[in-house]
Amino acid sequence: MYKNIIFDLYGTIIDLETDENLVELWQKLSFLYQLYGALYSPETLKKEYHMKVCELLDENPGNSIYPDVDIRDVFSHLFIYKSIKPNDQMIEAVQSNFRDLSSLKLLLYPKALETLGILSKRRRGLYILSNGQRIFSIMELQRLNIFDYFKGLHFSSDYKISKPDPGIFIKMLMSEQLDPKETVFIGNDMINDISGAIGVNLDTIYIHTNHSPPIDKNCKFKPTYSIMDGDFSKILEYI
Fold first, then answer.
1. CA distance 122 to 78
2. Are 79 and 95 in contact (CB under 8 A)?
3. What is the predicted pLDDT for the residue at 107?
4. Residue 53 backbone zone (phi > 0: left; psi -120 to 50: alpha; other: beta)
5. 171 vs 17, 129, 164, 166, 202, CA distance in Å?
6. What is the pLDDT of residue 185?
7. 182-239 pLDDT per residue, tens
8. Which segments in the chain show pLDDT lower than 50?
9. CATH number for the domain whose boundaries are 4-17+106-237
10. What's the pTM?
């Protein structure tokens, strides 16, 4: 019996679709920056944003072949580049608007809420390890009313490392003092989630969803359990 359950987030618990190329996104974001005194056209703001993301990825402070950035550093840079010193309220306003304007869909997968409730009643330790931005994910976990189910939340933006790098799994396990023998990882991506978790000796549950990449038939990584119809509640059969 597993005492601890680590979930991937997007594509596993949350069905999210975003489009960061929407014209309206950059129009409204540039207007917001202008209100704070940072003058950008939508086109220039988008260009500078992507240039800074690439620059930070190239710096790779986590020393990983799967680097990530903390998007707050990008939003902050966009102010500083225009000689504006941002405060926390300004960064929060930008990040909230950015995510809201770029989001096309934000839903829990069917039976996810009920299943998390059952696992919580069974006194399992529930955790998140996600390739994503903490500032976005916290907001979305709260909006979907599942934030309080989790004992620990860990994101690639925290470590500047992304799954499947074993380093992010190791850091998370050490931070929460979890015993791999008592822990299972659940995710929808055979490479990022399953191969990464197997690399640190975790049992795994693969759940195939609408956001799962195609499975390579020659893939050498085999999950401990598989749910191929996307039925979230079926994880209860293995835990």
1. 46
2. no
3. 98
4. alpha
5. 28, 11, 13, 9, 14
6. 98
7. 999 999 999 999 999 999 999 999 999 999 999 887 878 899 999 999 999 999 999 8
8. none
9. 3.40.50.1000
10. 0.95
3-class SS letters over the chain: CCCEEEECCECCCEEEEECCCCHHHHHHHHHHHHHCCCCCCHHHHHHHHHHHHHHHHHHCCCCCCCECCCHHHHHHHHHHCCCCCCCHHHHHHHHHHHHHHHEEEEEECCCHHHHHHHHHHCCCEEEEEECCCHHHHHHHHHHCCCHHHCCEEEEHHHHCECCCCHHHHHHHHHHHCCCHHHEEEEECCHHHHHHHHHCCCCEEEEECCCCCCCCCCCCCCCCCEEECCCCHHHHHHCC
**Is residue 85 packed enough to be buried (19+ CB in 10 Å), middle (13-18) or exposed (0-12)?**
exposed
Ranges of each domain in the chain: 4-17+106-237, 18-104
Angstrom CA distances, 165 to 27, 189, 209, stand at: 36, 14, 22
Look at residue 213 in the predicted model and tell me its pLDDT. Answer: 93
How distant, in Å, are the alpha carbons of 42, 53, 59, 157, 185 from that of 79?
14, 14, 20, 20, 39
Q: What angle do CA 171, 5, 131 make, to 5 degrees?
A: 50
Assess contact for 110 and 232: CB atoms under 8 A.
Answer: yes
